[in-house]
Design goal:
By secondary structure, the protein is mainly alpha-helical. The protein is built from 19 helices and two strands. The termini are far apart.
Length: 601
């Protein structure tokens, strides 16, 4: 009723004002014409007001009591929000065409390409690497053939699809990369077959034992058959032919082994082996670049000048994602032979030292040394990369702000390398003390009685790698972006990097506190619990870093996707990815323990 009273008051005020205007108009001689119009107008206004009052009353009666009504436009597609004219002009012309909605009769070929490509890259190929690492040559060849078949089938489906649509992304890199994958996959298959001809000492010894046992069995068969020969002379020829057939097969096997041994010692085979190893691991890293390139191509991200912003985020985010994979792999036991699984590494005077070992310093190279060197290299190149999107123009404050981050990388990387050189004697002494303590406990172990030439505890208390990541995360979390969504997503991965650095620092503390524990096998992989959190933060932060590029942010804003959407989806994906990686390493450990030396060929 209060609303009704207010409307009646406003109507009365308007009527009085209108009557005053009418008095003024009478003086001008036009009152008569206006008077007739005003009567009709007042009548219409009264009807409209009555109808409005009735409508308001009905609306009030139909309302339901609600404690809180959302008044902000959170999560709405951007065209449903209040926009300035220039903003509305941009978003009304925003192109939403992608490979997934373009008109074509071969949409299923795109999905087959994606499904079989992902199966081949993420499931089959890691398993083939495990078989190759364990020297299971026959199993490796079978798995490699399956992987290559799936990948080639995926490529053929992509060719069918791409030829059925217009050229939506001229000059994209994915088309060229697919051709490289096709050629290199076939080449890897050929090299793998040639490498499988390599002979090994275990194979030769195994063949030799087989020959000795077979010779013995032949003699014993003759003796055993002597009684049967007397009773049934016709069986002698059958037995002789059977044993002769076995001997003939054995001779053929020995000839094949001699051929394999000759090929193994040839220079051509050395070239084949080097090329195979390059392709074997080269494909792994190539796939890490191929997948995000496919995402950008299929969604038409990075066209025109936006490609530089896309590359900057994809490269940097990809580096941190790969760093997270490496951290999780180290926790799972990878690279323990180099002392990079948080385990001790010793080189004694009786070991044959190759050129690489002689090149290493007394404290051995730690992962902190590798990290500091890469940080230094990356910072040096990043100075020029930050100016690519503004090439030919003046350096903007944004360019200078980004370059200052590159200076942090250069300074921290250089300090980290120098720190590693200063700590090499400390690492040697730290490892040697624990080695001698373990030798006292295991006095009967002759391996512990030999002189230590090089040694490392598997880590180095070097703060500069984590300091670099910390400042990168902190600065970027405070970096103002063009939109609120972009700012929120930058804050997310910035905070994740900060958290990762905190837990890496705790790792160093744990390693320092447990350095005197000599009751365990020092050379076995150490598994600091904090490294699982570090790996998660790096993987998740790197993924969100890649999502924070401008082309992806614009698509999120167009469809009304919020920062919580990106965070939730990324967290779920990363936890599944980490679980899958750990399953692979667990499978490798199980397979390694299950296979006997004679089975590992």
């Amino acid at each position: 009723m209060k609303v009704t009273n207010i409307l009646l008051f406003c109507f009365a005020t308007a009527t009085i004002a209108m009557n005053m205007d009418m008095d003024n108009m009478e003086e001008d001689g036009s009152i008569e014409s206006l008077h007739s119009n005003s009567h009709s107008h007042n009548h219409d206004s009264a009807d409209e007001t009555t109808n409005s009052i009735d409508s308001i009353d009905s609306t009030i009666s139909s309302l339901e009591p609600t404690p809180h009504v959302m008044k902000h436009q959170h999560g709405l597609p951007i065209l449903q929000t209040h926009l300035l004219p220039e903003e509305k002009l941009f978003w009304e012309n925003y192109n939403t065409t992608t490979y997934f909605n373009v008109k074509t009769n071969h949409r299923s070929s795109l999905y087959l390409h994606i499904i079989f490509g992902l199966i081949s890259i993420f499931i089959l190929y890691p398993i083939t690497l495990i078989f190759n690492n364990l020297n299971l040559s026959k199993t490796y060849l079978i798995s490699l053939i399956i992987h290559s078949s799936c990948l080639i089938f995926s490529i053929f489906n992509y060719l069918i699809f791409i030829n059925s649509i217009p050229n939506l992304y001229p000059g994209n890199a994915y088309n060229k990369m697919i051709i490289i994958v096709f050629v290199s996959t076939i080449l890897q298959l050929i090299l793998a077959f040639f490498k499988n001809l390599e002979s090994s000492k275990s194979t030769s010894l195994h063949s030799g034992n087989k020959y000795f046992n077979l010779s013995t069995s032949i003699s014993s068969s003759d003796d055993d058959e002597s009684s049967s020969i007397d009773s049934t002379p016709l069986n002698y020829e059958k037995v002789f032919n059977k044993e002769e057939s076995k001997l003939s097969k054995l001779q053929n096997t020995l000839k094949v082994n001699k051929l394999r041994e000759w090929l193994s010692n040839s220079k051509i085979f050395l070239i084949v082996k080097i090329a195979f190893n390059l392709l074997n691991w080269g494909h792994f890293f190539y796939f890490l670049v191929l997948v995000p390139t496919a995402v950008a191509t299929f969604c038409l991200y990075g066209k025109g000048q936006t490609v530089f912003n896309l590359l900057a985020h994809f490269i940097k985010g990809g580096v941190f994602f790969a760093y997270g994979m490496l951290s999780l792999a180290r926790y799972s036991g990878a690279l323990k032979n180099k002392g990079w699984a948080w385990n001790y590494k010793f080189i004694t005077n009786d070991e044959t030292m190759n050129y690489w070992q002689k090149f290493q310093n007394k404290g051995l190279w730690t992962m902190e040394m590798i990290e500091s060197s890469l940080i230094l290299f990356y910072g040096s190149t990043n100075i020029f990369l930050e100016h690519l999107s503004n090439s030919g123009g003046e350096w903007s404050p944004k360019d200078l702000q980004h370059v200052s981050i590159a200076f942090i990388f250069i300074g921290c990387g250089l300090c980290g390398v120098i720190t590693e050189l200063k700590l090499q004697d400390w690492r040697y002494e730290q490892a040697k003390v624990n080695y001698e303590k373990l030798a006292i406990i295991n006095e009967n172990d002759q391996h512990h009685q030999q002189e230590i030439i090089k040694a490392s505890p598997g880590y180095s208390p070097n703060p500069f790698p984590i300091l670099t990541i910390y400042w990168t995360g902190l600065l970027m979390s405070k970096h103002q972006q063009a939109s609120e969504l972009s700012t929120e997503i930058h804050v997310q991965w910035g905070n994740l990097f900060i958290m990762g650095c905190a837990f890496r620092f705790l790792t160093y503390i744990l390693m320092l506190l447990s350095s005197n524990n000599s009751q365990k096998d020092l050379t076995r992989p150490n598994r600091p619990i904090t490294e699982l959190i570090v790996s998660f933060c790096l993987l998740c932060g790197g993924s969100i870093f890649m999502e924070s590029t401008d082309p992806i942010i614009l698509s999120f804003e167009y469809y009304g996707l919020t920062s919580m959407f990106t965070l939730n989806v990324t967290l779920g994906f990363i936890t599944l990815f980490m679980g899958y990686m750990m399953v692979l390493f667990a499978f490798k450990d199980w397979l390694k323990n299950k296979c006997s030396p004679t089975e590992v060929v």
